[in-house]
Each structure stands twice: as C-alpha cells, then as structure tokens.
Amino acid sequence: MTDTIHLALPCIDAAQAQKHVTHNEALQLLDALTQLSVIDRRASPPVTPNDGDRYLVIASAAGAFAGKEQKIAVHLSGAWAFLAPKAGWLAYVETEQLMMLYSGSAWIDAGLALRELENLSLLGIGTSADAANAFSVKASAALFAARTVAEGGIGDFRVTLEKEAGSNTASQLYQSNWSGRAETGLLGDDDFHVKVSADGATWREALIVDRSTGRVAFPSGVGDGASAAFRNRLRNATFAINQRAISGEVSLAAGQYGHDGVKAGSSGATYTFATSGLDTTLSVSAGSLILAIEAQLMEGGAHTLAHDGTAQARVWQGTGYSGSGAYAAASRSAPLVVSGLTANAQTNVEFASGTILRPQLEPGVYATSFERRPPGVELSICQRYFQSLLVSHLFTASAGTQFGGSVMTLPVTMFGAPTLSALSGGSQTNVMVDGVNSMGKAAIRYFIASNAAGSVEAYDRAFTASAEI
Questions:
Q1: All structural domains of the chain with their residue ranges
Q2: How confident is the model at residue 344 (pLDDT cuts 50, 70, 90)?
Q3: What is the pTM of this model?
Q4: CATH code, 250-364
Q5: Is 280 helix (H, G, I), strand (E, B) or coil?
Q6: What is the pLDDT of residues 286-314, one digit of tens each?
Q7: What is the DSSP string of 37-50?
Q8: 252 vs 217: which has the higher pLDDT
Q9: What does the longest C-alpha to C-alpha distance in the chain come to?
Q10: Are 114 and 103 within 8 A, CB to CB?
C-alpha cells in the first residue's frame, strides 16, 4: 500500500530512504484536510496565492486548475496540489459563509437540510407535536414578517387556511386554560363566522358575513341586544296589541282575527294566552294560527323563521287562509330557512298546535335576536290593518231629522279603504240615527240626525275599521 485508503496520505515503505520527506508530505496533506476550510470556489487559481491557501475547483476550470473540477486545490511550497474528496466530506467556504458537503459526485449546500424541511410528519417547537396537532409551538411570541422587495419578496404577507369542502371548517380557535372562548373563520359553510363561548361547551354566533352579498348578520344582537330596526316582518310579534279585547279561551272561525295580526287557518283555531313580563305566549290547542305579512314588506329570496315556543310552522305565499306545505320545527337554536320566496307577494307564517312565543321572520339565512319594537310603534303598525275608535259630536237642531256630522282623520293611514262596523256604546241625546262612512284609507265621515229640535249629542260612540289581509 503506497497511500492511505481515505485521505490518500503517502505511506513510508520499509526500505525507503529519506523517510522524513514522505512523513512531512503526509503531514502537509493532513494539515490541509483537517478542519477543512477553503477561501473561495474558483475555476482558476488566484494571481498571488499564499502558501496553504485552499480552494474548491468548480466547473469550467482553467489554467493550473484545468481538469481538476470538484477537487480541493491547496497551495504548498509554491505549487498546487489537488486532493480528491470522498463522499461525506465537509468544507467551509469562507467568502460565502457556507458549509458544503460532497455527495460523492458534487459539492452541495450542507445547509439545505436546515433551510428546506420537506414532508415532515410532525414538528414541535418548544413542545411535542402529535397526530392531532402535527405542528405545535410553545413560546412567548411568534413573528411573521413579509419578505421585502429588496430581499426578493413582494412586501406582502398572507396566511392561508384551506379546507376540503364547504361543509368543513377552516378557523382560528382562541382558548383560555385549554377551553375554547372564541372562534373565527369558515365554520361549517363558506360564510365568515365569529362565535364565542363562556365555558367552551355552549357557543353563540356573534357575527356572520354572507359570502355572496357581504351582508352582516348579528344573530345574538348588537350592543344591548337590539338588532337592526324592522328586520322582523311580523307585526305584533310580542302579542301585546289586543285591540279586539279578546279574553279567556279564544275560538276563531277560518280567517277570523283574534290578537292583532293573528288569524285562524282553514280549520279555525282555539287558543289561550298568558302574559309574562313583556311577552305574551299563545297556546294553540286546535287548528292553526296565521300571521300574515303585507306584500310590500317582502323583498323575496331566503328568509328565516325562529321563535321560542314549541309549535311547528310553515311559510307560504298567497292571500286567504288556506295554506300548503309541511310544518317543520322553527326553534331559535334550529331555525326554519325558507328559500325562493317571491318579492312583493303576501306571505304567511302558519303555526300548528303548541306554543308561540316571540316569533320572527327576517330576510337572510340566519336567525338574529328577537326584535322588540316600542309599544307605540307596534300599535301604529297594527292600526294600518285594524283600528278600534271612538267618535263624539254635538250640534243644535232647529227641527227633527236634521243632519250634522264631521270628517275624522284616522290615526294611521290604512292598508286599504276600511270596512266599518256599526256604532255601539257611549251615550246619545235627541239622536234619531247616526253612523260612519269610509272616505278612503285615511278618513271616515260621521253623520248624526236629530230626533227633534234642540241639542243633539253623541259621546264616545265606538266602532272599528278593518283593512285586514
């Protein structure tokens, strides 16, 4: 053997003269290869090399380096020596501050394994990752910064969360003591959601942004719990307005009204009601109750029905009281979404037997908190369709059968020219006959005839005006 196997250092023969020469040559090569660090990667030798300088010879080598590609050039005693690398050798390139690794056929960047981690199954930083959390970090802070244009980037930075299908979830979950408190993202559909929890078990939707329209819904209310005004298309949804003064067990024929805005379905209805706090609960024991909505209040498309009672419901369009379609649950937690409603068409919410409490039909596919309107506003809405009124009049007649009267402007312009009931109650003096006539949607005429000459008086004569749908 004339050279060592791995470093190719010269060996001393047993009968060799001047053994020190061979020994010194081996030491020089060993010195060149130990803690290998080269000045640069070059294709040709420098003009004035220093003794001991080392270089990696790259492709297209020329001059003294010609034909020595991939080898280590070391300048020793005024001449160039070339060392052939072995697979696994490491060399530090000083000018580039780069560690190179010889693969057996080429020098490669040894730092690639640290700068490019591909197809890792688990990665834990400061903690252990597992199958459920393949990437886990336990630290005090994390920074993500955009690569600048000068660094070869575009100056922007985006984090992308991708899910497989619309019914899956892509979200950010915020926890306190390992219990969920807030979550944002695409939660079970392709709309943007924000939901919160007080205990990590019961969650409330705070905000939903519709992916198609950009409209924002606040299912749990805004601020003090009040939603945007007049989202609820149902009138008298608290059932507090009772202009007909019904009481006890209410039995209605088909199409007949009880509480304001509430009429019986095609089989009539029997119900009772009880008030607790601000709300009245209707309990339907037979038939069905319809809450009709004027055509001009319907913009079409999808609408959502929810209430806090037990009665199932259906939503249909058309006039009258003969509905169609199957009844379904419409609870606050699982509301009934009705798609494809026609705009500007009378719409009806019909409840079967059970309780009805705080019903709300609103545009969109999400149920928001119940809208509670001021009593005066709700009464005005109801008076568009039904009014219970009193009229008084007096004049002095010079003979019998002499007529007097007046025009009375209605408190609220009605849906249509109202049907007026007969007068009743109050008190009359020297009255032969009195009555009321409609003068369109906004006024009525009261007339009164004397029985004889003298003062003719009528006080608090009651009647109703109905323009129900």
A1: 35-110, 250-364, 386-466
A2: very high
A3: 0.64
A4: 2.60.120
A5: strand
A6: 999 999 999 999 999 999 999 999 999 99
A7: EESEEESS--SSPP
A8: 252
A9: 166
A10: no
